[in-house]
Amino acid sequence: MSSEHEQQRSRLNGEYTKQPSEEPWADLELTLPHNRSPTGIVSFVECALVELTHEHVGAEFVSMSVAGVKRTQFIAVDDVGQRFQKRYFDKRLGWRETTVSREAVRDELVNRLSQSSSDRTNEMPNGDPDTFRVKPVHQF
Question: Region Disordered: start and end of each range (predicted)?
């Protein structure tokens, strides 16, 4: 009888300690063009900023143009999410880094993700679309 009770208890404990198969930030990805509303874009960016503050993840915006691939990455540098490291890669210039405020990151991401396809004049014809995604910092 005690073994049956122990099996039941371990089964219950296992049910309560199961972790979700995906991380909460795993679905924070967006490809341009998209059909999100301006309010939806702001909400999406705010969700991404919360994850950057609370998890060991960063955000990356990758754009393709006739000049090549450009990457902009953002990683929180403090525990309260008010300062971010911004890394920018351009084939001609290489990597550049700076520290920016949360407001600057928010504004830049909202502006970039709000662009319509007609606003994106430097994109490659039939090239890969611009993408934004949140991913673990070690993958940068």
Answer: 1-23, 111-140
Closest C-alpha to 124, from 79, 64, 75, 36: 64
Name, in order, each residue with C-beta under 8 angstroms of 99's C-beta and a sequence gap of 6 or more: 77, 83, 84, 85, 86
pLDDT digits (tens, 9 = 90+) for 31-58: 988 889 999 999 999 999 999 998 899 9
Q: What is the pLDDT of residues 10-38, one digit of tens each?
A: 434 444 343 454 777 777 899 988 889 99
Q: Is 20 left (phi over 0), alpha (psi -120 to 50) or beta?
A: beta
Q: Which residue, chain included where needed, has tokens 């430097």?
A: 122
What distance in Å separates the CA atoms of residue 65 and residue 114, rounded to the nearest whole number?
18
Do 16 and 48 contact (CB within 8 A), yes or no? no
The pTM score is 0.75
CB atoms within 10 A of CB 119: 12
Task: Report the C-alpha gap between 81 and 89 in whole angstroms.
Answer: 23
